[in-house]
Amino acid sequence: MLHSPSPKRALVTGITGQDGSYLAEMLLNKGYEVWGMVRRHSSTAYDRIEHLLEKGASDQGALHLVHGDLRDTGSLLKILRQVRPDEVYNLAAQSDVKVSFDLPEYTADVTGLGPLRLLESLRELDLPSRFFQASSSEMFGKVQETPQNENTPFYPRSPYGSAKAFAYHNTRNYREAYGLYAVNGVMFNHESPRRGDSFVTRKITMAAARIQHGLQNMLLLGNLDARRDWGFAGDYMEGAWMMLQADEPSDYVLATGESHSVREFCEIVFEELGQPITWHGRGLEEYGQAPDGRKLIQISPEFYRPSEVDMLQGDASRARELLGWQPSVSFRELVSMMLAHDLELVERDAARADVA
Ligand code: NDP
Ligand code: GDR
Q: Does a structural domain hold residue 184?
């Protein structure tokens, strides 16, 4: 009698985050058994993966949640021993750059030491799991060269960037020292309608949707001239999976190759809403005005960072050539997708409030 091969098993840390939800969706559709590590919360609202839990997973794979924390080695050992995953995707982190200046030690613990705890646990248990580390373009920090590729030196500008660089080097070192299949995806900014609302793209699309519906007057922002290479999160998770399917473990940059400023992001959003902005004033006095004279955007020092990463633009040629990876969503499409989602969200909330 023929037996179908048992499904591959993946452990995803950070499954409740933006990337974790896209990755879980994708792996389930590929027939994986997915184990998501979750932290204990006072409420168990897993907004981003609720649709996967409700469906009782997916048509093919199955989703299981287990409690654990990157700060607790015992929990990592226990989960790895229980799950014995073929693939581990380490997406969990204190991922907010601005917050990392307020919580540097905590960020180093979760974002820097967390991956080391996972790697050491894998080694300790002698598991043959393949390991993906969510590394970040924030490691490049102060501009050394543009565009940035796998050989560009790191110059982190935040406790978050430094913690990610520590994790990057450890991932590489565990590969070289112990022969683990451990890789870094050096990912540039990626966004989606599921992006946390403290990040600048989602903050802008949410505020614009609320302004459009008269629920908010103004949007307060920090540095409008910061430039980022913004792509769609789903594409980056496809890249993460591809990295773990390659014959040889290696590190890859994932990026779109295009860079845009926060200012441009705002301009496109308000243009799409039929309220093109004009800019007036300078420095902290600068503001963005609607055609009818209303101030829509104002600068607030609160949103500046002690040190800034001015310009990020990635070169993902290596991933394109060796993995066949390329982004499928353009910058314009990404902005429209996020804005359309937030307009719908605001309209739905307004309709609910009317009924209540
Ligand atoms: P999110 O902030 O949306 O998600 C972070 C996840 O980590 C959440 O599931 C969170 O759980 C979990 N987490 C936080 N602390 C711990 C901890 N101590 N133990 C276990 N889990 C924890 O991040 P993204 O989805 O945007 O990013 C995913 C990964 O990719 C992160 O490592 C990030 O640093 C990295 N990255 C992201 C980029 C981007 O542009 N999005 C670019 C480059 C790298 P909870 O829900 O309980 O808070
Ligand atoms: P980033 O993303 O720091 O690049 O880290 P974020 O969206 O927070 O900032 C991007 C740029 O916008 C400027 N900015 C503002 N940022 C925020 N959050 N809020 C504001 O009001 C504001 N005004 C201007 C920032 O100064 C910055 O230059 C993200 C995270 O997902 C990391 O986890 C990931 O590693 C990197 O992307 C790649």
A: yes
97: annotated binding-site residue?
yes
Digit-coded pLDDT (tens) for 104-114 = 999 999 999 99
Residue nearest to atom 4 of ligand 2 (CA): 189
**Between vectors from CA 123 to CA 121 and to CA 23, what angle results, nearest 5°?**
65
Which residue CA neighbors atom 6 of ligand 2 most closely? 199
Q: pTM value?
A: 0.96
The rounded Å distance from CA 109 to ligand 2 centre is 21
- Name the closest-CA residue to atom 35, ligand 1: 134
- Ligand 1 midpoint to CA 230 (Å): 17
In a domain, 86, yes or no: yes
On whether residue 4 sits in a domain, the answer given is: no
The count of domains in the chain is 2
Q: Whose CA is nearest to atom 43 of ligand 1?
A: 136
Residue holding tokens 């991933």?
Answer: 319
What pLDDT sits at residue 41? 83
**Residue 71, ligand 1, Cβ within 6 A:** yes
Q: Is 111 in the pocket of ligand 2 (CB under 6 A)?
A: no
The Cα–Cα gap between 51 and 60 comes to 15
> What local confidence, expressed as pLDDT, does residue 60 receive?
56
Range of 105's domain?
9-193+230-258+310-329
Predicted confidence at residue 55, as pLDDT, reads: 63
Question: What residues in the chain have per-residue pLDDT under 70?
Answer: 1-4, 45, 55-61, 355-356
Q: Using the mean position of ligand 1's atoms as its centre, give its distance from the Cα of residue 95 in Å.
A: 5
- By C-alpha distance, which of 132, 332, 137, 340 is closest to 237? 132
Any ligand 1 atom below 6 A from CB of 11:
no
Cα 131 to Cα 71, 124, 169, 337, 355: the distances in Å are 18, 14, 14, 31, 49
Predicted confidence at residue 51, as pLDDT, reads 87
Encoded tokens for 169: 């080097």
DSSP-derived 3-state class of residue 261: strand
In a domain, residue 2? The reply is no
CB 163 within 8 A of CB 152: no
